Amino acid sequence: MHRWWQVWLWCWLWLATPWAWAQGVQLSRLDADPPPAQVLSGGFDRQFIVLAQPVLLQPDKQRYWWRLTAVRPIPPQAQPHLVLRSPYLHRIEVWPTARASAPLRHSLTGMDRDTGFSTRAVVVPLVQGLAAGQSLYLRVEALASTPVPVSIEPLAEVHRQDLAHVGWRMFVLSMMVMLSLLAVGLWIGIGDRSYLFLFLTLAAQMLYLVCIGGEVRALPWLAHWFSADLRMIRLVTMVAVIASSGFVAYYLNLSVRQPGLMRILATANLVMLALMVVSLFSAAGWIARFGNVVLLVILVGMLVAAVVGAWRRQREAYFVLLSWTPMVMLAVLRVGEIEGLWAHWAWTEYAVPVCCVLSGLVLMTGVTYKIQQLRQDRDRASELATFDTLTGALTRTAFEERLRAAVERARQAHSSLSLVFFDIDHFKRINDAHGHRMGDQTLRIVVLRARNRLRTGDLLGRYGGDEMVVLLPDTYLEQATVVAEHLRDALNCRPLSIDGVLLRVSMSLGVAELADGESAEQLLERADTALYASKSAGRDRVTSHRVTTTTARAQGALT
User: Fold this and answer.
1) pLDDT tens across 103-126, in order?
2) Residue 465, by phi and psi: left (phi above 0), alpha (psi -120 to 50) or beta?
3) Is residue 7 part of a domain?
4) Can you tell me the distance from the alpha carbon of 362 to that of 337, in angstroms, rounded to the nearest whole number?
5) Is 462 inside a domain boundary?
6) ∠64-69-73 over CA atoms, to 5°?
7) Which stretches make up the GGDEF domain (predicted)?
8) pLDDT tens across 329-373, in order?
């Protein structure tokens, strides 16, 4: 526990390091876009609004001026750099001095991108440092309203943070790729639509992460669509939301178990689809605001569905609840940050992708668990259809399937195959005299004693009532007759003891060997004929049905 607390404390210190550097600067905003000469000359200094946190948050897509003032001296020996973290779709102009003739233009993607640093932030070197009270001005245009923390860091710290960021993002994106490929592979292999919805969710989340994180700049043709056009980002986000709600609805079977909530989610998804259509033609700000409201409705609806399902002890709901609770909390925090309802927390930048990965892992585990449960239920049903619940022997249908397969194998391999048909003599008398419970116990003991005298490859089936049949592969008629005698002796050797009652039970048996060109049904019929010959001869005996000549094959000979 002490080691875990150390790791937790280190993580918080690592996330809080940029804020420690940011304490030496003060950020102000000018809610206007006057000409640069007037701003740089100090004509609008009184109109700048000082912010409580050094977080750049554009109210809309208009251009705004920002002023960064050094609270204490920042010497050039430390190689200070202006760092704007998570700049997303911001286009930034930096005016380092009032005498600058042209700004330094920066963005995460596009023509002004700087590949010398990671996609963690836009980094601008401050070669001359900043004196106490000295300011530099930023002119920012943002396609979307997202918080951008601002700080000044030494070059060594920038490199350290970049290395950690690249390693972290590679891990997250690699996990997302692996989970997506695994989901689509399982969907193709198994055919369960849960994996398709999960794949769409993970793929849309991954595309969203690489767009807002800047990794999309590695593919210029893709970056052109997803970094310069806000509509594409919105479409990806909406697809992820619709796919997620579709997955939850299908996975939890909401249409049957929670139809009222299903109608709410379906309505919200239709609204989201309508917003997607509108987004194809417009990038208006109200679409994002209204979309955020619909997003919260869908997320809360999925969370409520999981809570209700967990309350009803639906196992699938536990996985959804475990995966979606942190996602809903982070979505609420993010929407509140964008709308300016509360301050920005630096750790949310890393928590969102981590939650995407953990959610994917949990949901993949949940879907796989569900598939495993369905297979266990199917295997259980198959077992019930294959084995007789009373005796444990094969059912008639299962035995006939195996008999036909064994006959085909014997014909192809030119090997022998024999069949033993038997039933308990006067079994009806046992039921009439002692009851059906005694009769059931008699059947169990007879099957148990018979199985103990059979080889591993021999098959024992219950054909109906007290009639049993034994399949003997690679066995000639003479050998099968000996096996039948052993089965008879196993029952006759000692009486059955059931509930303190001793029963002397015998059985009659018929044996037949597979003949050339004979079908499984014909073999069964000859074995059955031999059985009835034993009963007609006085019971408690073995009779073999031998095919002597080709012309007599249909009739056979009893011995």
Assistant:
1) 888 888 777 788 888 888 889 998
2) left
3) no
4) 27
5) yes
6) 155
7) 415-547
8) 777 777 676 666 666 666 777 777 888 888 888 878 877 777 777
Q: Which domain, by its residues, includes 548?
A: 396-558
Q: Is position 314 within any domain?
A: yes
User: Would you give the DSSP letter of residue 72?
Assistant: S
Q: Is residue 4 part of a domain?
A: no
Backbone angles phi, psi at 461, to 5 degrees: -130, 155
Distance CA 119, CA 156 (A): 17
Listed as own residue / partner, the contacts of 108-114 with beta carbons closer than 8 Å and 24 or more positions apart are 108/214, 108/217, 108/227, 109/214, 109/216, 109/217, 109/223, 109/227, 109/228, 110/217, 110/223, 110/227, 110/228, 113/217
First-last CA distance in the chain: 81
- 81-108, pLDDT tens digit by residue? 999 988 877 888 988 766 666 888 888 8
Specify the pTM. Answer: 0.61
- The CA distance from 64 to 66, in Å, is 7
DSSP 455: -
Q: Is residue 302 a contact partner of residue 320, using CB atoms and an 8 Å limit?
A: yes
Residue 504 belongs to a domain with what CATH number? 3.30.70.270
Number of other CB atoms surrounding residue 174 within 10 Å:
11
